[in-house]
Amino acid sequence: MTEPGLAARRAAHDLVDQVTIDGLLLSEALATGTLARLAPEDRARAQRLALQTLRGMDRADRMLKPFLQKRPPLTVCNVLRMGTIEIWSGEAAHGVVNACVNIVGQDKHTQGMKGLVNAVLRRISEERPGAWDRLPVPRLPDWLRGPMIEAWGKPAVEGMEDAHFAGASLDLTPKGDPQSVATAVGGTVLPTGSVRLQGSAQVSALPGYAEGNWWVQDAAAALPVKVLAPKKGEKILDLCAAPGGKTMQLAAAGAKVTALDLSERRLERVSENLVRTALTAEVVAGDALEVAEGGWDAILLDAPCSATGTIRRHPDLPYAKDGSEFGALIDLQAEMIDHALTLLKPGGRLLFCTCSLLPDEGEVQADEALERHEGLAADPAALEIDGIDPAWITAEGGLRLRPDFWPDLGGMDGFYMVLLRKPA
Length: 424
Description:
Blueprint (H helix, E strand, L loop, with lengths): L5 H15 L5 H6 L8 H16 L1 H8 L9 H15 L4 H13 L8 H12 L16 H11 L1 H13 L3 E5 L3 H8 L2 E2 L5 E3 L16 E3 L6 H6 L6 E5 L5 H8 L3 E6 L2 H14 L4 E4 L10 E7 L14 H4 L5 H18 E11 L8 H10 L4 E2 L20 E3 L13 E7 L3
Parallel strand pairs: 5-6, 5-8, 6-7, 8-9
Antiparallel strand pairs: 1-3, 1-4, 2-3, 9-12, 10-12, 11-12
């Protein structure tokens, strides 16, 4: 007889292995079809368990350390981590231990460690009540934690780690009145006008989804368009547009929007959301650096970046990456800023933003762009919008958002944005 939940646990372990061993992001691992043969409820459970394991990995390692004389192979470590987290999240220890032993036993390279897994997880299940909660909040890996502390200081980084471990709420951007959407879905209106739901929810089943009254978008990610302040009839280019939240914001404001992205597959989602929300934009697949059409009133450049600001919803990132590709991303961002400025009409506006917590992808990029381009100016007055704390405005005139902001409201993604005005 198959242990209940075994298929989901096997799939979750496979996902965690693909992130920590193969270096794939969770989204890339999911695209490999790992979950394709599972029933929908098992697919959802596997994804939840994989996220839970990645989010709590550092804390699980601290709990496991006293019971391991030496570190087993990483795939076995991942089974132990997953089992530890499940036990301390309230799952029945007997079922968790049996499933984890089964997972290790199915691989000829690890089946000799069934006894170790059985013994260690049983010891974990016998730990004193509250042992899990007394452990420190999971820390970022050293390769990222060091630069973050250098940029923001240790107390701020510890606050971000608290936010990462807590995870992210579901935020919605209303097409119309925020309070009407909040009332319909049972959420609350945030200071910046986004609607936040606590707990998990099936997005497509929420009131107003089918009618296109809102779309999913973190509150921080909704702010660049508010700063850009699109006007009805303006010709606006949304570079790197997928998954399309900002495109829909621009279209809802009445702008004539062209949404460009390198990925045709991701643009399919943009088109689907435009149809659902009854909004209009031209959707184009292409390379942002090859765009030749000029004369744009405004350009929104949400540039490719490290995505370190999204760890609270993507806990796989610190384990799939090691920072080695960030230098190339920083160079690409500068190149994209320079090219976008050539496409603006005189006096046009460029909103540059990244979902990064690294100043090299934010404040430093803005400073260097202002130095490279005579007459280019940041516009800090554009940041005077509802919900923005003046303390978030930076020296060069940009806006720095961090996960440790709004701790009483559930935090936000890390983001940087700046509105740059081309000389007339």
